[in-house]
Amino acid sequence: MPDLAQFLESKASIHLLITLLQANKPMIVTEIYDEMTKRFGMGRTSSESAIVICAKLGLVKRETKRIGRNPMASIFHSLTPRGRKVGEICQQLEKALT
User: Can you tell me whether residue 2 is helix, strand or coil?
Assistant: First the structure.
């Protein structure tokens, strides 16, 4: 249960789910960092912690894929079905509070 407590205390986790939900496509870490910084003023450490917490809770999945001729694989992050449901709830809360 400590992961759930961390999730609830972390604004970044909520913002991550909303970001991935609105993107509606898998994102690599640099895209997540850029979007979280631009939209919410979150730093890399907060964003990375959010990814780890959401992955532990089964809300975000990581997939490794090669892009083009690049020999290094990129790690793509996307919402699981459970993560999509939680993300939609977080988005509704954000709209209600603003």
Answer: helix
Stretch (H or E) spanning 96: helix 81-97
CATH topology of domain 2-90: Arc Repressor Mutant, subunit A (1.10.10)
Residue by residue, DSSP assigns 10-39 as: -HHHHHHHHHHHHH-S-EEHHHHHHHHHHH
pLDDT tens track for 39-97: 888 888 888 889 999 999 999 999 998 877 777 888 999 999 999 999 999 999 888 87
Q: Which two tokens stand for residue 65?
A: 């894929």
d(CA 23, CA 32): 10
| Cα gap 42→52, rounded to integer Å | 15
In this prediction the pTM is 0.85
Cα 61 to its chain centre, rounded Å, is 9
Nearest Cα neighbor of 11 from 36, 35, 38 is 36
